[in-house]
Automatic annotation (TrEMBL):
GO terms for biological process: carbohydrate metabolic process. Belongs to the glycogen phosphorylase family. GO terms for molecular function: glycogen phosphorylase activity; pyridoxal phosphate binding. This is Alpha-glucan phosphorylase. Pfam families: Phosphorylase. PANTHER family: GLYCOGEN PHOSPHORYLASE (PTHR42655:SF1). It comes from the Bacteria.
């Protein structure tokens, strides 16, 4: 780290850093992982804070009857490459005190470079209340109380960890609204260390918080009942000696509803969107804030195949490499599905997290025409499809079942669904396809970084 331990603290509910580490669900986690890797490349003092989930229902499996199942990850963080964080030679445990009990939080870490570290927090600790242990089962699961507890772990325990390790963040960057309870602990620290009143500490805390919105989709902009948030906020308000409502009133969008997004907007001094178009939609949705549009990028060393990284490649060599990557993708598909295809076909790929706003069904609105395109004798096309449904989104599961049914019927032999879409599969798809197909609903697809990964390997993006 820097001599005085100054850094940027980067909070996100998910980080996609390793293929098998079940701490990511979709594009948000992959983006967060890319940012951490990019910071490590230039030795930027960036400290990531996330949650160490156990991966319940993390693995997608398709049954012999063509139905989707979700199986548990076998990842064991205690025997993995993760290292438990220590202090003064002893394993560090963070404590969150409540009225008649306390919760132990065990931090693990990945050192990406000397100045870039990623910490994962876990309450899967012996002696913790069972509900806090089960909160670690899987990303974005659980009832309202469970989700709020997870946000307390991320926000409050995350700030406690930074203090324990003597980090001195110049700014706190929160991705989406889930980490927004960081302000409770930041304000508490300012009151304790600098002797500030609650009102002044709250204002000072806001000055250091940066908020990035990544989606206008409701699932990324959570709401809870006021009563549920108040129940948990009350425990922190008592210790601060303030009225409970002061800790959450800025997130109220009605007499009984708390919005994580509104709260994050109100407690941050800087508000950013992830593309120029997304910035315009954010400005229209929340006009009382000034939005800065910073287009997302990708970490090229992770997504661009090493064979394509030379600037001296001729057109002929690029084409030969592309043909090789197409064969490698075909082999990967065979390994995953048992189904093969002619790699000389034009390979069109649709791959991303399955959700209605990404409109995967539009491709199949006219299956007769689609079949004509795929089976054209002169210019045959191979369609590849991949995407995981979220366990908390039953509608997404029906999308998978519907797609597999279509692929087994009219367009069988020309379309393949590849299960368990993950980082490894994505690497093959973005380098071995010919066309990268996007079908988003305009205002809900904030940026669309997958096309950037594809074009870096010479794969054309079609929206």
């Amino acid at each position: 780290m820097t001599e005085n331990n100054q850094c940027i603290a980067y909070f996100c509910a998910e980080f996609g850093t390793d293929n098998d580490l079940p701490t990511y669900s979709g594009g948000l986690g992959i983006l967060a992982g890319d940012l951490m890797n990019a910071a490590a490349d230039v030795e930027y003092p960036l400290i990531g804070i996330g949650i160490l989930y156990k991966g319940k229902e993390f693995i997608q499996h398709i049954t012999g009857e063509g139905y989707e199942e979700q199986r548990d990850s076998q990842f064991d963080h205690d025997t993995s490459f993760l290292r438990q964080t220590s202090k003064d030679g002893k394993p560090l445990i963070i404590k969150i005190p409540f009225d008649n009990y306390e919760v132990s939080v065990k931090p693990y870490q990945i050192r990406l470079s000397d100045k870039t570290l990623l910490y994962f927090l876990s309450t899967d600790v012996d002696g913790n209340p069972p509900e806090w242990i089960s909160d670690m089962d899987a990303l974005y699961r659980g009832d309202m109380d469970s989700q709020i507890r997870q946000q307390i772990i991320l926000g409050v325990a995350g700030i406690k960890l930074l203090a324990e390790l003597n980090y001195k963040p110049k700014a706190y960057h929160i991705n989406e609204g889930r980490p927004a309870f960081i302000i409770w602990e930041i304000a508490a620290n300012l009151m304790k260390i600098e002797g500030l009143s609650f009102e002044k500490a709250w204002v000072r805390a806001k000055e250091k918080i940066i908020y990035t919105n990544h989606t206008l989709v409701a699932a990324g902009n959570l709401t809870y009942t006021e009563a549920a948030v108040k129940k948990w906020a009350n425990l922190f308000a008592q210790k601060l000696g303030v009225e409970t409502e002061l800790l959450f009133k800025e997130g109220l969008i009605g007499p009984n509803t708390f919005s994580t997004t509104l709260f994050a907007l109100k407690i941050a001094s800087v508000h950013t969107a992830v593309s120029q178009a997304h910035g315009k939609f954010c400005q229209a949705s929340w006009p009382e804030h000034n939005w800065i549009a910073i287009t997302n990028g990708v970490h090229l060393p992770r997504w661009q195949d090493s064979d394509f990284r030379s600037s001296k490649l001729s057109d002929e060599i690029i084409w030969e490499l592309h043909q090789t990557k197409k064969k490698e993708l075909r082999d990967s598909v065979i390994k995953r599905t048992g189904l093969g295809y002619d790699s000389n076909k034009l390979v069109v790929t649709w791959a991303r997290r399955l959700a209605d706003y990404k409109q995967p069904r539009v491709i199949f609105e006219d299956t007769k025409r689609l079949k004509q395109i795929l089976t054209n004798e002169k210019y045959p096309v191979q369609l590849l499809f991949a995407g995981n449904s979220h366990s908390g989104d039953p509608n997404a599961k029906s999308i998978v079942d519907e797609i597999i049914r279509i692929f087994s019927g009219e367009i069988a032999g020309s379309a393949i669904f590849i299960p368990n879409y993950n980082i490894s599969l994505s690497n093959h798809l973005v380098s071995g396809s010919d066309i990268w197909l996007n079908t988003p609903k305009g205002n809900l697809e904030a940026c669309g970084t997958s096309g950037m990964k594809a074009i870096s390997n010479g794969v054309l993006s079609l929206t």
